[in-house]
From TrEMBL:
Pfam family, one: Transglut_core
SUPFAM superfamilies noted in UniProt: Cysteine proteinases, E set domains, Transglutaminase, two C-terminal domains
Organism listed in the record: Pieris macdunnoughi
Biased composition (Polar residues): 319-338
InterPro entries: Ig-like_fold, Ig_E-set, Papain-like_cys_pep_sf, Transglutaminase, Transglutaminase-like, Transglutaminase-like_sf, Transglutaminase_C, Transglutaminase_C_sf
Region Disordered, annotated ranges: 88-113, 289-338
The protein's name in its UniProt record: Transglutaminase-like domain-containing protein
Residue ranges of domain Transglutaminase-like in the record: 524-621
A GO term for molecular function: protein-glutamine gamma-glutamyltransferase activity
Length: 957
């Protein structure tokens, strides 16, 4: 505020002036507020004898002086409607009934009467101005000499903070143009503010306000107000007469907290008026600053104009508490016992150099994660309405912290954190249970598009910002937002029928970054297309980017029970043909060759002790939960124990792993038209795998880690299946149709496993039959080969053999089916899988048997090499090669490849490929960082696809 001139004082509002009268010099502190809230009321000028009736020497004639006509303790007078001989006051509104009557009933009603009224107002005003001038002499002129602090520049030291927060790999932090801080909750961070002048500890008030979401709220923990109070509270007036009339005048001048409820303490003469913050005050000498990566010098890379040097006294702190992202307000007595100190936001001054102050802020381990904004609010003591607000340009990303013991996603093992949080590449497992195929995938969680995309997906999910400190709610929202099959709000559309002409085939993706970037550049339009393993890779990317430990898991022979019977039912007619959807057309059960989902690591305070650790979430749209395609987090331990009553979707996950496969064949003699067939096929959940965190295998699959024992007990302690079903459904459903056929099984059947079959080569299917009885048996056998989707659905029948023959007592027979490449080449679909189905029926004993087996055709590997060594900042060349295994031309060819630090996701068109040709393609790259870089590439064409490969490329600095 500029220095107050005498004329400015004269123009002070009459209401403010009279309110000070009689207050005593103890009310000087209230004068600051009064001077800052001037208000004037104008009315039409009325003259008497050439002089305005409201004229007061020294004041503008435009201001109504009737408000000065008050005495201490009286209310403000209302202005007159008219002046002169016929002047009237509004009946009932004048505070002086006697004056009204004298003006109304005086026989002369002369102008002198009005003059007297004006005169007394003027004299009273002059007296009050003299008293006010006495009070002005007691106020330091520096109080009015300056405006509030103004922010000139801010610096969040993104690179330095990232070292302490384990976020130095994020591209947003290392951006050369405009770096953004990525911070983990439960830790401290530094940021500096340069003001337009040196701050005055006695008069300047500073608030740091952090906001999350469109409607930040203090009570919900999404608006955090951190007031900076100095260790030595300011003393404004030191005058003996300050004790006179202390009361309202003293309290008006005290600094008021912007949002927090505080306790005000009034002290005696010579001391200061202090404020007790809501949170308990920590002494400065007990506050230890962690400075392992912060020196006295600014960052060496891209130095900031802010260069704080020299320490200052640290302030007493006031923090807005938060628990799981929710803040609570109240008195000191109510908050101190209920809110742990570790769950409060905190601020202190780290150092000060001239007009630059470096602050240190502590993020509680329960803070909501996501995008935050920072405001700097400054004002002067006693001038609350004269405030300056400055919004920092930086977007602040706050994420989970697996390194903090107070965070619910804390992971103790350092090697596990490196794999499940920091590793930006891995493998997704496809194929079949006896022929797993690992596919390299670039998660790319540190790419500059990932955190913005993840933040936007959380906004689209509708999850309240106040709930985003809870990893359970976050992971459930992620499982619903990855897929976009039920609406247009998700990230990716799933498709399984092989028709991808209007999008990108799932097998053409090499990582998550290209998908997320397309999602952002298309304005949030869902990307086409993906399948379960693509969804799983995206979940890993987003969870690790947000700081949640995550791994991709593949369940081989995964059940999808659609009617809640914990069975997967298939029906066949007398000829061995599949009856779609069952005899009543209401059975949509299926058994996927493999299904990929995710495990996320967290504690579960909402469940009994012992159910934390890995939690299962599934982003593939299979079944709706709460009217949304979402699944989990379900406690892995609860699934293993068969305790399916816990949240979330534990029963559904249990059925994927433990459902019973039931095959039924049409039979005229059956009471309900079908009989159950015996099967040698292994149970659902045959093998569960993930990537081994201790092994990296670019060429083979030695980095496969089987974790079946974590999901299903193998030591005989497995829970009784029917008891689990009964507990989950409230009753035990036992159907006669699901009971095994009570016949003497004296003939054994076995469908032989098929070894690796190269793409383009013929194969044989074999079924062994052994008659263990002492009598001949007449057996009807059906053997079918079909191309199928990995979901188990049949695409096309390739070949079928059927016959009835006699097997002599004690003899063995082998039934074979030969399939040539010409019979399957143009009928294959995704993953090039073949399903073999065998059925047998013994006429003498009515023994029925059925079994299925699936296997993939193996395609050539795509080789990746470099032409010469690669160096950072210098052009290099990558070479991709493979041999066409087909005897036909390949058309509509293209390569897709990426390597973090070498090449962003790219797709390149390629010419037609001749039959049997050795294909070679090379492309220029410009390495941006040194070290071992993982490169992943795929080749696709109309005739063959899913030719993929990976390699580790060494880049020198």
């Amino acid at each position: 505020m500029a220095a107050v001139e005498k004329s400015s004082v004269d123009k002070m509002s009459s209401s403010m002036t009279s309110s000070i009268t009689g207050m005593g010099l103890g009310g000087i502190t209230g004068l600051a507020t009064a001077l800052n809230a001037l208000s004037c009321h104008c009315e039409q000028q009325i003259t008497i004898g050439g002089m305005p009736t409201n004229y007061v020497p020294g004041l503008s004639a435009n201001y109504n002086i009737s408000s000065f006509c008050q005495r201490p303790g009286q209310t403000r007078r209302w202005p007159m409607q008219r002046a002169g001989p016929t002047a009237q006051f509004r009946v009932g509104r004048s505070p002086s009934t006697g004056l009204q009557r004298r003006l109304k009933y005086s026989p002369r009603n002369s102008p002198n009467t009005q003059y007297s009224h004006t005169l007394i107002c003027k004299l009273a005003d002059q007296n009050e101005r003299r008293r006010r001038q006495d009070a002005m002499e007691l106020i330091s002129q520096s109080f009015y000499s300056q405006l509030p602090l103004k922010v000139e520049l801010t610096e969040f030291y993104s690179r330095d903070n990232s070292k302490e927060h384990h976020t130095e790999l994020y591209d947003l932090v290392n951006d050369n143009v405009f770096p953004n801080p990525v911070l983990r909750r439960g830790q401290k961070f530094l940021f500096a503010v340069r003001f337009d002048r040196i701050s005055d500890k006695q008069l300047d008030i500073i608030h740091v306000v952090l906001c999350c979401g469109p409607k930040p709220s203090v009570t919900k923990g999404t608006r955090i107000v951190l007031p900076v109070q100095w260790v030595s509270p300011p003393t404004i007036f030191h005058h003996p007469r300050d004790v006179i009339g202390s009361g309202i005048g003293m309290s008006v001048g005290l600094p008021r907290m912007q949002c927090d409820v505080s306790t005000i303490t009034t002290t005696a003469v010579g001391t200061t008026a202090s404020m007790s913050p809501v949170s308990s005050v920590r002494e400065t000498n007990n506050y230890n600053v962690r400075r392992s990566s912060f020196g006295n010098d600014p960052p060496t890379v891209q130095p900031s104009p802010l260069s704080p040097h020299g320490a200052v006294d640290r302030p007493i702190l006031n923090a807005t508490p938060s628990a799981y992202g929710r803040s609570q307000q109240g008195s000191v007595q109510n908050l101190t016992p209920s809110i742990p100190e570790s769950e409060k936001w905190d601020i202190s001054i780290h150092r000060q150099d001239g007009n630059t102050i470096t602050f240190q802020v502590t993020i509680p381990p329960t803070a909501p994660v996501g995008l935050w904004n920072c405001w700097i609010q400054t004002s002067r003591l006693g001038q609350r309405d004269n405030r300056h607000d400055y919004k920092c340009d930086e977007d602040i990303y706050i994420i989970f912290n697996p390194w903090s013991r107070e965070d619910t996603v804390y992971m103790e093992n350092e090697e596990s954190r490196k794999e499940y949080v920091l590793n930006d590449q891995g493998k997704l497992w496809c194929g079949t249970w006896h022929q797993p195929i690992g596919r390299k995938w670039i998660f790319g969680q540190f790419d500059d598009v990932v955190l913005p995309a993840a933040t936007y997906l959380l906004e689209r999910s509708g999850l309240e910002h106040s709930d985003r400190g809870n990893p359970v709610r976050i992971c459930r929202a992620i499982s619903s937002m990855i897929n976009a099959n039920s609406d247009d709000d998700g990230l990716m559309v799933g498709r399984y029928d092989g028709e991808y002409k209007d999008g990108v085939a799932p097998h053409a993706w090499t990582g998550s970054v290209a998908i997320l970037e397309r999602f952002l550049t298309d304005g949030g339009r869902p990307v086409e297309y993906g399948q379960c393993w693509v969804f799983s890779g995206l979940v890993v990317t987003i969870c690790r980017a947000l700081g949640i430990p995550c791994r991709s898991v593949t369940n081989y022979v995964s059940a999808q029970d659609t009617n809640g019977t914990f069975t997967v039912d298939k029906f066949f007619d007398k000829e061995g043909n599949l009856v779609p959807n069952g005899p009543d057309e209401d059975c949509y059960d299926s058994c996927w060759n493999f299904h990929a989902w995710n495990d996320v690591w967290m504690q579960r305070p909402d469940l009994p002790q012992g159910y934390g650790g890995w939690q299962i979430i599934d982003a593939t749209p299979q079944e709706e939960a709460d009217a949304v395609f979402q699944c989990g987090p379900a406690s892995l331990e609860a699934v293993r124990r068969g305790e399916v009553g816990f949240n979330y979707d534990t029963a559904f996950v249990y059925s994927e792993l433990n459902s019973q496969l039931c095959h039924f064949q049409e039979e005229d003699d059956s009471d309900w038209g079908f009989i159950k067939m015996a099967s040698n096929q292994q149970q659902v959940g045959r093998k569960i795998v993930t990537k081994n965190p201790n092994i990296e295998d670019e060429e083979g699959d030695s980095d496969l880690l089987e974790i079946t024992q974590e999901y299903k007990p193998t030591n005989g302690s497995a829970p009784d299946r029917m008891s689990v079903i009964a507990s989950s459904r409230g009753f035990q459903r036992l159907q006669q149709s699901h009971e095994s056929n009570q016949s003497d099984d004296d003939v054994t059947f076995d469908l032989m496993d098929i070894e690796t079959v190269p793409y383009g080569q013929p194969f044989d299917c074999s079924m062994n039959i052994q008659n263990k009885s002492t009598e001949d048996r007449t057996i009807l056998c059906i053997l079918t080969a079909s191309s199928c989707y990995y979901t188990g659905a049949i695409a096309s029948r390739l070949r079928r053999a059927q016959g009835e023959f006699i097997v002599r007592a004690g003899q063995r027979e082998i039934l074979k089916l030969h399939v040539t490449s010409q019979e399957y080449m143009d009928k294959l679909v995704d993953h090039s899988m073949i399903k073999i189905h065998a059925m047998a029926y013994v006429k003498q004993t009515r023994q029925a048997w059925s079994e299925e087996d699936d296997f993939p055709l193996h395609k050539p590997k795509l080789q990746i090499q470099t032409r010469g060594p690669l160096t950072v900042g210098q052009d290099g060349t990558l070479v991709f090669s493979f041999q066409n295994p087909l005897t036909v031309h390949l058309t509509d060819c293209y390569f897709s490849f990426e390597g973090p630090g070498i090449q962003r996701p790219r797709q390149a068109r390629f010419r037609d490929v001749k039959p049997g040709e050795l294909v070679t393609y090379q492309d220029k790259v410009l390495p941006r960082r040194e070290g071992d870089i993982h490169v992943v590439a795929t080749f696709s064409s109309r005739q063959i696809d899913e030719i993929f490969g990976s390699a580790v490329i060494i880049v020198k600095g």
